[in-house]
């Protein structure tokens, strides 16, 4: 149901070892086959562009089991995701000065810069956290959801991003709920309604009938760096309201697979922010802040089998649907309708390709590489086509096709530079709308 009764599995792969699944920045639902089997059998799994039309179940019998962070049915409900730490993960080095020999005199101690410097750093960091929390806390809400079915009830978190009652939260916090109660930071209770469910990510928009509400400051996730301060606010266990935890941005571009224990289905979550700020059941949908108190992500998952491994959806991914809701539009994501694989030097050699960058339209499972009746099919794209650029912007290891499509709206026309055999050509594709169901 609504809260976190989902075990999670994650997949990540080392770019240095092609025999292992590789961590990539991807947007879009997963292919219709077991995640573990797919990654074990093929180190270069096909990727669904944010244009894939279905979200079929994935087997969750393999891999590390995780929990998304929500509370339901009077007990902690599994709701998060599993995550793998890949090569290139953040490492930290501590430098410690040891005083040996005779003790410092009072005069020497007064001249010693280390103590004053460290105290100042602690003071600055503490002040930044306090200021950030004071700014965002009034707009962080507790969300109680209930369903008449087997889902029971659950508790999660959300935050007000527009003063007219627009709230962003996780999809798994409110999905299938027939009653939603939003509790403001001043304990005011309001009836909430699900405005829309995102077809691409674990996000949802909730609306309450109120105006002049406090709002958070919306930041950007485009230029995040490993090691920068991260602050999480939420309602762990559903009873410790407005709890603040701090940490750092531990990693970027993480890819994980979240599964449902009840239905044995799962979905892929992509391009996530990894943080060691404590995220617990009930934190789902809460804001991840930077030192300026700006929202940089939406807390959504945590690794159950490890400590200090949590995940948040970057706020830039949420921004388009946030604006659509305020404009009174349905929540829509662009769709092209292909599966593809990123081209690496090894893949280029194996397939005898003339380029080492771009993506190749291909599928390793039973699903078609080009979906029938999709925008890609209408434009004449074919399996084996190599896409090297979108609207003139090159596609490479740092710039993925899915990332370039995401900012567009359904109905936009894009121009793809396509290599078919040895012949380059340009193909125009009018993007469709990512379907909600298979």
Q: Could you describe the largest sheet, including whether it forms a barrel? A: 16 strands, mixed
Poorly predicted parts: 1-121, 259-265
In one word, what is the shape?
globular
Mean pLDDT: 74
Radius of gyration: 23 Å
Distance between the termini: 19 Å
Determine the fraction of residues in helical runs and give it as a percent range: 10-25%
Give the helix tally: 8
Beta-strand proportion: 25-35%
Class per helix and strand makeup: alpha+beta
SS elements, strand count: 25
What does this structure look like?
The protein has 438 residues and is of the alpha+beta class. The chain is built from eight helices and 25 strands. The protein has helices spanning 35-41, 106-111, 113-136, 171-174, 315-326, 345-350, 375-379, 401-405, and strands spanning 7-10, 47-48, 66-72, 75-81, 140-146, 153-162, 166-169, 179-183, 189-197, 204-208, 217-218, 229-234, 243-259, 266-275, 287-289, 294-302, 310-314, 334-335, 339-342, 359-361, 386-390, 393-394, 413-420, 423-430, 432-433. The strands form three sheets. It has a 16-stranded mixed sheet that branches. It is globular. 50% of the residues are buried. Mean pLDDT is 74; it is low at 1-121 and 259-265.
Descriptors:
disordered N terminus; 7-stranded antiparallel β-sheet; alpha+beta
SSE layout and pairing:
Blueprint (H helix, E strand, L loop, with lengths): L6 E4 L24 H7 L5 E2 L17 E7 L2 E7 L24 H6 L1 H24 L3 E7 L6 E10 L3 E4 L1 H4 L4 E5 L5 E9 L6 E5 L8 E2 L10 E6 L8 E17 L6 E10 L11 E3 L4 E9 L7 E5 H12 L7 E2 L3 E4 L2 H6 L8 E3 L13 H5 L6 E5 L2 E2 L6 H5 L7 E8 L2 E8 L1 E2 L5
Parallel strand pairs: 11-16
Antiparallel strand pairs: 1-3, 1-13, 2-19, 3-4, 3-6, 5-6, 5-8, 6-7, 7-10, 8-9, 9-10, 12-13, 12-15, 13-14, 14-17, 15-16, 16-17, 18-25, 19-20, 20-21, 21-22, 21-23, 23-24
């Amino acid at each position: 149901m609504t809260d976190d009764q989902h075990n999670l599995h994650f997949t990540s792969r080392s770019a240095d070892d092609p025999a292992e699944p590789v961590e990539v920045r991807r947007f879009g639902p997963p292919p219709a086959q077991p995640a573990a089997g797919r990654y074990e059998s093929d180190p270069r799994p096909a990727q669904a562009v944010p244009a894939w039309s279905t979200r079929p179940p994935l087997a969750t019998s393999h891999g590390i089991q995780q929990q998304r962070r929500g509370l339901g049915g009077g007990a902690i409900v599994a709701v998060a995701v599993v995550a793998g730490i890949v090569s290139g993960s953040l490492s930290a080095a501590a430098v410690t000065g040891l005083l040996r020999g005779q003790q410092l005199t009072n005069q020497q101690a007064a001249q010693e810069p280390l103590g004053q410097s460290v105290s100042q750093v602690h003071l600055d960091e503490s002040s930044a956290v306090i200021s950030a929390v004071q700014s965002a806390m009034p707009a962080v809400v507790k969300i109680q959801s209930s369903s008449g079915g087997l889902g029971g009830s659950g508790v999660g978190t959300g935050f007000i991003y527009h003063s007219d009652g627009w709230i962003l939260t996780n999809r798994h916090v409110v999905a299938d709920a027939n009653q939603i109660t939003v509790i403001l930071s001043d304990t005011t209770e309001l009836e909430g309604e699900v405005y829309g469910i995102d077809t691409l990510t674990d996000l949802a928009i909730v609306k309450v009938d109120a105006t002049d509400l406090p709002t958070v400051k919306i930041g950007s996730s485009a230029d995040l760096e490993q090691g920068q301060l991260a602050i999480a606010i939420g309602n762990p266990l559903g009873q410790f309201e407005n709890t603040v935890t701090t940490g750092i941005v531990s990693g970027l571009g993480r890819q994980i697979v979240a599964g449902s224990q009840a239905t044995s289905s799962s979905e892929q979550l992509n391009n996530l922010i990894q943080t060691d700020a404590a995220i617990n059941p009930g934190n789902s949908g809460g804001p991840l802040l930077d030192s300026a108190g700006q929202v940089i992500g939406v807390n959504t998952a945590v690794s159950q089998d490890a400590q200090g491994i949590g995940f948040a959806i970057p706020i830039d991914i949420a921004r388009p649907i946030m604006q659509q809701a305020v404009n009174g539009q349905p929540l829509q994501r662009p769709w092209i309708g292909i599966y593809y694989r990123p081209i690496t030097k090894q893949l280029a050699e194996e397939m005898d390709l003339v380029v080492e960058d771009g993506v190749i339209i291909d599928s390793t499972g039973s699903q078609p590489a080009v979906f029938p009746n999709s925008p890609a099919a209408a434009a004449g794209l074919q399996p084996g086509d190599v896409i090297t650029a979108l609207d003139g912007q090159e596609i490479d290891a740092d710039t993925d096709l899915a990332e370039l499509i995401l900012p567009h709206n359904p109905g936009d026309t894009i121009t793809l530079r396509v290599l078919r055999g040895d012949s380059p050509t340009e193909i125009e594709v009018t993007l469709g709308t990512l379907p909600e169901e298979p």
